[in-house]
Amino acid sequence: MTGREFLELDSPQQRLILERFKRMEIIQKMFNELPKADQNLCNHGKYFLAANSSLCGLAANNFFRSILHVRKATVVSAIPMAVIPFLSTAAIYEAFVYDPLFSGQLNCEVCAVIRGGLVGAVVGGFYPIFLAIPLNGSLAARYMSTPLPGKENLLRYWLTTSQPVFRKMGLGILVQALTGLYLATKQHGIYIKMLLQMNSSRDPEELPE
Predict the structure, then answer these.
(1) What's the whole-model pTM score?
(2) Phi and psi torsions of 137, nearest 5°
(3) Residue 64 pLDDT exceeds 60
(4) What does the pLDDT average to over 136-141?
């Protein structure tokens, strides 16, 4: 007995799983028939958001280095601030927006757009700033470029130190949020276009709702 036959014979939950796989196959087939411009936007749009996240990381790193008077380890501090935000933003956008959307699990336009904006702002904008704090704090302590407070005043010190950085990065965070909103909106539009093509070409039982 094959796995497909096993799924067909058992519970309604397994039939739903089978229908979901069938739906995903049809979506993938329709996706491959899209214009190249639409395919490129869906496949590579997240990398544009991730590249902006790297720029935010490098900018935040430079701001903290200037505030803390860190002059050494320029390359060592720049590499993780470029690479980690890039990988994190691309992976999280894929997991929370792209995959649910094109697997048929995220049909709500407002939900998709909100997710895209949140990923852009939080992961692509705020996260690189928070990532720069311990990195540059450890460099400042290692090279003794700036006297750091004790544990009892550490939180207040970093809140005060970070305020000018957040103000300077405000535009970058806004751009990231708008970029995430734009990508999610465009990709949801492409997904709806695929659904309309399916509904106009499929048999009544070919793609269950």
Answers:
(1) 0.83
(2) -60, -45
(3) yes
(4) 92
Q: Using CA atoms, how far apart are residues 61 and 71, in angstroms rounded to an integer?
A: 12
Q: Does the pLDDT value for residue 3 go beyond 70?
A: no
Name every residue whose Cβ is closer than 8 Å to that of residue 31 and which is 6 or more positions away in sequence: 39, 42, 102, 194
